[in-house]
């Protein structure tokens, strides 16, 4: 009753006023700039002025990922083009007619010369960084999350979720192996080019802004490597939200217990691993220490992965996980963040982590000021020799995302709290 009164009295948040355009964060090099600062790629190479040349900025960016120097059509600075030849859409410079009379809509980042997605500048760029030690389940989680966003979450929020860049590659690399063939994804390589995967999450209600989501699949083997992380630090610092993944099998105190309870049917069980706290130490060195107050206020969902494995810890009256735990229950948030469900899982996982890995929980509390705790199973069961024994049945995978949407002001909260 009191909850209901509180809810009625709670002031409705003011609807956000739409600015004329948005700053762009480059999804490749993570520099932040204004839509007016972009440059363009010529669409033709038919005379001296438009011949193919070495693109130094793009080549420098590629060098970070050990890729070759490249030749490309010339880059055009819009400042060299008369006003009447510049093309705008929704207050954003999107194209130009070059001095050879050809039109180009190939907008590039001024710093790395990679091509920007069409909606950049028109909708907010929301870079979601996914961090976590090697083999915690980052790649599988991204695959399962996108699959769920496209197939259920979008409908639950009267929206659509569409790949806007590298969509075909995403499907081939992430969705098909797991959802069509029931196999796992190879460990992500730290020298491989980081391909951002971009999606537009668009509400049918036109007064609500769409979100451009950029997901990064970093290599876990680099998470505790200084050189790799200093490269990633910029993207983490410029991200709108962080998904910090933690694998229960990498927590010392419960790892052995789960392994024993698994019995004969061991399935996958990673040998080498980094403890969750090691990842915070490297994040601290490379990014958090430079934030005001030595803390970050970027909304961070701390997500316990592979929650299906927690069944091997559950016992009635267990100190760890009870058989009626929220962790095993699939739930869907529809239209708003269900506060009851959210508070239950947040409380349970927060207490669980404090019990099984106090030092990690303390570090999270000390360095992340805007956070909540979740548990997901991207697959629903433990694969055996990299093969799934049954169909994928994700558990609560979109919940951290729904919470982030709420934190970023896109959706309301509801239910009695
Ligand atoms: N039981 C269970 N195992 C999972 C789940 N998700 C992933 N795994 C296991 O964890 C392994 C690693 O998953 P990945 O997604 O490749 O891990 P990653 O964090 O991307 O690893 P790196 O690329 O090396 O950093 C998979 O091969 C699966 O065996 C899950 O939901 N449940
Ligand atoms: Mg990976
Ligand atoms: Zn860039």
The CATH architecture classification of the largest domain is: 3-Layer(aba) Sandwich
Our Rg estimate from Cα atoms comes to: 23 Å
Q: Write down the secondary-structure element order.
A: HEEEEHEEEEEEEHEHEEHEHHEEHHEHE
Q: Mean pLDDT, nearest integer?
A: 87
Query: How far apart are the first and last residues' alpha carbons, in Å?
Result: 10 Å
Structure summary, number of beta strands: 19
Taking the sheet with the most strands, its summary is:
7 strands, mixed
Q: Within the CATH hierarchy, at the fold level, what is the topology of the largest domain?
A: Rossmann fold
Class by SSE composition:
alpha/beta
The helix content, as a percent range, equals 25-40%
Number of domains: 2
**Quick one: CATH superfamily of the largest domain?**
P-loop containing nucleotide triphosphate hydrolases
Bound small molecules, which ones?
Answer: guanosine-5'-triphosphate, magnesium ion, zinc ion
Provide a count of the helices. 10
What can you see in these coordinates?
- The strands form six sheets. Strands 12-13-14-11-15-16-18 form a seven-stranded mixed β-sheet. A three-stranded antiparallel β-sheet has the order 6-3-10, with no helix packed on it. Strands 7-8-9 form a three-stranded antiparallel β-sheet, with no helix packed on it.
- The protein has two domains: 30-108, no CATH class; 125-414, P-loop containing nucleotide triphosphate hydrolases (Rossmann fold, 3-Layer(aba) Sandwich), CATH 3.40.50.
- It is built from ten helices and 19 strands.
- By secondary structure, it is of the alpha/beta class.
């Amino acid at each position: 009753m009191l909850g209901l009164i509180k809810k009625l009295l709670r002031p409705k948040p003011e609807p956000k006023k739409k600015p004329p355009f948005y700053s762009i964060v480059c999804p490749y090099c993570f520099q932040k700039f204004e839509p007016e600062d972009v440059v363009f790629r010529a669409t033709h190479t038919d005379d001296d002025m438009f011949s193919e040349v070495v693109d130094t900025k793009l080549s420098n960016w590629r060098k970070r990922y050990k890729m070759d120097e490249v030749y490309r059509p010339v880059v055009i600075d819009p400042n060299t083009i008369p006003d009447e030849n510049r093309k705008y859409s929704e207050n954003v410079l999107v194209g130009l007619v070059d001095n050879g009379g050809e039109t180009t809509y190939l907008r590039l980042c001024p710093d790395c010369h990679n091509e920007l997605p069409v909606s950049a500048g028109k909708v907010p760029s929301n870079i979601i960084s996914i961090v976590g030690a090697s083999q915690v389940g980052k790649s599988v989680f991204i695959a399962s999350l996108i699959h769920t966003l496209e197939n259920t979450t979008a409908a639950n929020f009267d929206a659509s979720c569409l790949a806007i860049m590298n969509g075909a590659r995403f499907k081939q690399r992430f969705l098909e192996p797991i959802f069509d063939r029931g196999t796992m994804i190879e460990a992500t390589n730290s020298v491989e080019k980081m391909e951002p995967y971009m999606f537009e999450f668009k509400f049918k209600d036109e007064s609500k802004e769409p979100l451009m989501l950029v997901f990064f699949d970093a290599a876990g083997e680099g998470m505790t490597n200084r050189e790799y992380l200093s490269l990633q630090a910029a993207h983490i610092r410029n991200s709108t939200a962080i998904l910090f993944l933690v694998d229960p099998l990498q927590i010392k105190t419960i790892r052995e217990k789960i392994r024993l309870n698994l019995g004969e049917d061991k399935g996958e069980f990673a040998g080498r691993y980094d403890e969750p706290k090691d990842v915070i130490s490297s994040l601290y060195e490379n990014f958090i220490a430079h934030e005001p107050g030595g803390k970050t206020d970027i909304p961070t969902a701390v997500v316990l992965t592979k929650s299906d494995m927690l069944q091997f810890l559950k016992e009635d009256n267990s100190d760890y996980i009870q058989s009626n735990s929220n962790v095993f229950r699939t739930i869907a948030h529809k239209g708003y963040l269900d506060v009851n469900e959210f508070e239950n899982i947040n409380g349970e996982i927060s207490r669980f982590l404090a019990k099984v890995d106090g030092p990690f929980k303390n570090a999270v509390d000390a360095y992340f000021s805007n956070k909540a705790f979740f548990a997901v199973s991207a697959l629903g069961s433990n694969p055996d020799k990299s093969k799934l024994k049954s169909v994928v049945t994700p558990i609560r995978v979109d919940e951290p995302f729904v919470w982030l949407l709420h934190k970023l002001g896109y959706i309301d909260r509801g239910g009695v709290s």
